[in-house]
Design goal:
With 350 residues, this protein is an all-alpha fold. It contains 20 helices and 2 strands. Among the domains are: 12-107 and 294-335, no CATH class; 121-205, no CATH class. Residues 1-5 and 342-350 have low confidence and may be disordered.
């Protein structure tokens, strides 16, 4: 078993070799790892990376269901990368993100809410120092107070839900609903829709993290609406929403859609929306999936275009996350043993 530590960088020969390996489908990924590494990627990762180095607390479930999900994800390379194929650098980088964000079963899950001191809806609404920004006062979302009191489309769509009358009964709270301080004493904090269904349709909760990269903010959901409205495939879940949202302004769809709508779309078994959300996010953030094949640029610890560091920063926003991600990808690629280390000599022919 290979133990990895203190991986400083990738050599030009390693990067060139990884860039030369290309995948057009999940089957290509499976074939490559079985041929080159002697195992399915999940089994290889668990044997050579999981529990070691910066992967010390990560492991993938090696089950038929998880392997089928991995196959489905990598069958959507065009949806993710906007190209017909992706190279091994891109595979290693995105898999590193998926293992971090989607967890051991590679599930496109919805962000859970609640932690000590910030129960339920408070977690999404408020700024938590060192953890997250307020999802209400961020520049990309519509403020809850504006939606609750000034938006007739929001009220028409959601006004029948629990807690609607309670919110409207206290108009003095309109301004507080536009801050990063949840009115804990006067509004339910429970994430049970039976108690707070109306409040949960506001942007701060509805557009929290979902999917493989935890897509957040209305601005990142609007392009997904446009994708669904122009979808030409036969997936029944997406086709149902294509019909329901036909001809509507995407911003209006965001206002009138529900948490349940977005859970259904992101969690549908073919992973189409969850995969396209990655590609749309990359496109909106300088095409961070277009990684450089120059070793110095790829491994730079600065957010230069084409670097792993910049990709991590675009997805999470945190410098520590970006640096850990950069080093994890380098560990993973090094473990594949693509090319001799600089200074190593290939064995001569007998």
């Amino acid at each position: 078993m290979l133990y990895l530590e203190n991986i400083a960088t990738l050599t030009p020969s390693q990067v060139a070799a990884a860039a030369a390996v290309r995948f057009s489908s999940g089957s290509d990924v499976i074939a490559y790892f079985e041929t080159h590494c002697g195992a399915h990627f999940i089994d290889w990762f668990n044997a050579h990376c999981a529990g070691q180095g910066l992967w010390s607390n990560k492991r993938l479930v090696s089950s038929s269901a998880v392997k089928a999900r991995a196959l489905a994800i990598w069958n959507h390379i065009p949806l993710i990368f906007d190209t017909a194929s992706a190279n091994l650098l891109q595979f290693a980088a995105l898999m590193s993100i998926l293992i971090q964000e989607a967890g051991s079963e590679l599930l496109p899950s919805t962000e859970l809410c609640g932690c000590p001191g910030y129960p339920g809806l408070v977690y999404a609404f408020e700024h938590i120092p060192g953890t997250k920004a307020s999802y209400n006062s961020g520049p990309a979302n519509k403020l809850a107070g504006d939606l609750f009191f000034n938006d007739p489309d929001f009220w028409a769509a959601h006004g029948h839900l629990p807690a609607a009358d309670l919110v409207r009964a206290i108009p003095d709270l309109r301004e507080q609903w536009n801050t990063a301080y949840y009115p804990r004493l006067l509004a339910p904090t429970s994430i049970n829709p039976v108690h707070s269904g109306f409040i949960q349709q506001a942007d701060f909760f509805k557009f929290r993290g979902r999917g493989f990269i935890q897509t957040t903010w209305r601005a990142n959901y609007k392009p997904i609406v446009e994708f669904i409205q122009t979808y030409t495939g036969n997936n029944p879940v997406i086709a149902r929403y294509r019909q329901a949202w036909a001809g509507m302004d995407p911003d209006l769809v965001c206002t009138k859609s529900t948490n349940e709508d977005w859970d259904a779309l992101f969690e549908e078994p073919e992973c189409i929306v969850a995969c396209r959300a990655i590609g749309l996010h990359s496109r909106a953030n300088g095409n961070y999936l277009n990684l450089s094949t120059c070793a110095a640029t790829l491994t730079s610890s600065n957010p230069v275009p084409g670097s792993l560091y910049r990709m991590g920063l675009c997805i999470n926003g945190g410098a520590a996350y970006a640096e850990t991600f950069r080093q994890r990808v380098m560990e993973l690629i090094t473990a594949i043993k693509l090319a001799p280390e600089e200074g190593e000599r290939k064995p001569s022919a007998a």
